[in-house]
Structure prediction request, 119 residues.
Amino acid sequence: MTNLHNLTIAKLRKAVAIKEKVEALQSELDSIGGTAHAHERAAPGRRKKRRMSAAARALIGAAQKARWAKVRRGQKASARSAAPVKKKKRKVGAAARARLSAIAKARWAKVKASGKSTL
Prediction:
């Protein structure tokens, strides 16, 4: 685009006239094509956010509940009501912890002896 500071008054008037012609042609094109006015059109690359009505949400929710009911009908009653079984946490014994600690200490002693401060 040209620098508007360096234009003469005559050139600025001509630019404004051309701009008005372009806008008039654009509005005429919009009226022929049946599109919305220029200020109502969404900017290119940007979509208008879509909203869902409460009735549509209710229909979707009812359909989802029906799908889950169908899944649950196939299960046994005891499987539905039983709480999920939690696995026991595995614990490291004191002897194993001491052995791992000794291995780590030996590894760090070897690293420090070589003059490094990181592994």
The mean pLDDT is 84. The longest helix spans residues 9-33. The CA atoms of residues 107 and 119 lie 9 Å apart.
